[in-house]
Amino acid sequence: TEIDVQNLRSPICCILGHVDSGKTTLLDQIRGTDVQGGEAGGITQQIGATYFPADNIKERTKELRADAKLKVPGLLVIDTPGHQSFTNLRSRGSGLCDIAVLVVDIMHGLEPQTIESLNLLKMRNTEFIIALNKVDRLYGWKVFPNAPIQQSLKQQSDNVQSEFKWRLTDIITQFKEQGLNTELYYKNKEMGETYSIVPTSAVTGEGIPDLLLLLLKWAQKTMVEKLTFKDELQSTVLEVKVIEGLGTTIDVVLVNGVLRVGDQIVVCGLEGPIVTVVRALLTPHPMKELRVKGKYMKHKEIKAAQFFKVAAPGLKHAIAGTALYVVENLDDLEDVKEVVMEDMKSIMCRVDKSGEGVHVQASTLGSLEALLELLKSPEVDIPVSGISIGPIHTKDIKKASVMVERKNEYATILGFDVKPTPEAQELADKLGVRIFTSDIIYHLFDQFKAFIDVVKE
Ligand code: GTP
Ligand code: MG
Ligand code: NA
């Protein structure tokens, strides 16, 4: 049947894998950016997204002379953290995507979060491709920048080729132990049954053309129905950010539907549902990540799939990691307001009913969830009596100060990727509330543990 090309949306591709397997660097390589270099501790701790227009992908894959008839407008790629604390973000990322890339470090093989990611993909029946990354680390590797991988492999010495072969064979065996058949993509005759492996280097760009082309061809071939544009809006707030001149804005992934300037929207807020009207829709220039500062392009409407910034009044207490809805019909408003707060309920359940515990605060719902998960784990086991999202204000200090008399060591705020306002810090000093902050999630626990150890002595 003829495909209605006009009506295909861009596939959404999620990048998953163990910490430091090279997910962000792969995207940096494709974009020509250095997001990874700017990350605290060199680890990703939030979800990022980048839109790659089809023209760009054509340019990048031209050496494969596939001239691939790209029918989709582009590819929206979602980067996720590999660190073990962020299971929730891997789950959220994989829940948004049509297709995925599972990144495996050729020097390490399958690692715990590779297997966790694999299980998420299996659970959701998501198609994926394996990027066998860091091939340039094979001893004696000769670099052919941005070359298609077969071209590059052919020109390697016998030693390099044999190391490549035994590592590949080993990793294929490890996948088999997980119940999965895998094969080098250019030898794979039964995609769908057997998962394809694309050897890559995020540093030299080798194998990147292969990866991009395979992703798009595979998505176009197998998911026309899924990629056929639907009107029903499906959208998630990934981040809440204050931008000079715009006030508080939200970064949104639109999976399906159209969002327009003037639309009435509802998002989940810390102090209840936020009902507002879209004032501006902004995208970064193509190939730039929204996490990176720059100039924006303005749009009257945006059609899925895309990642963009929404400016609207009253977003100050919006919570990242929750769904966004458009009110089509005013009669539905009350229902929508209720639905939008569902995401918040699940997190409220994590607060200790006894009322005894530390106060926990983070920049996004996703990072708050990750921190709560970490504190709950048996090795850590720190009770939580209060939570909040965003900067630490005096009201948070007041809440935490209740513990000063009750259980002094819990008169503590653990802030992940947030800071106290000067007034809040002042009040904390006065009331005897301790504030530990860090932009690396597990350092927070280390700080608190060191403090508890001193108290116990
Ligand atoms: P998390 O997001 O924290 O899970 O890590 P990640 O998977 O995004 O890995 P990241 O991009 O942070 O890379 C980790 C380290 O590996 C960095 O020092 C990169 O420079 C390095 N690296 C990534 N890909 C390659 C590669 O293909 N070759 C080599 N030699 N180094 C790489
Ligand atoms: Mg990363
Ligand atoms: Na990393």
Q: What gap, in angstroms, lies between the N and C termini?
A: 75 Å
Q: Which small compounds were modeled alongside the protein?
A: guanosine-5'-triphosphate, magnesium ion, sodium ion
Bin the helical content: 25-40%
DSSP helical segment count: 15
Major beta sheet summary? 7 strands, mixed
Whole-number mean pLDDT: 90
The value of Rg in angstroms is 23 Å
Write the layout of secondary structure elements.
Blueprint: E1 12-17, H1 23-31, E2 48-53, H2 54-60, E3 74-79, H3 87-96, E4 99-105, H4 112-123, E5 127-133, H5 149-154, H6 158-177, E6 182-184, E7 195-199, H7 208-222, H8 224-227, E8 234-243, E9 247-256, E10 258-260, E11 264-267, E12 274-277, E13 280-284, E14 296-299, E15 301-303, E16 306-311, E17 324-326, H9 333-340, H10 342-348, E18 358-362, H11 365-376, E19 384-389, H12 394-401, H13 403-406, E20 412-416, H14 422-431, E21 434-438, H15 441-456
Parallel strand pairs: 1-3, 1-4, 4-5, 5-7, 6-7, 18-19, 18-20, 20-21
Antiparallel strand pairs: 2-3, 8-9, 9-16, 10-15, 11-12, 11-17, 13-14, 13-16
Helix pairs in contact: 3-4, 12-14
The chain binds guanosine-5'-triphosphate (GTP), magnesium ion and sodium ion (NA).
Sodium ion binds next to loops.
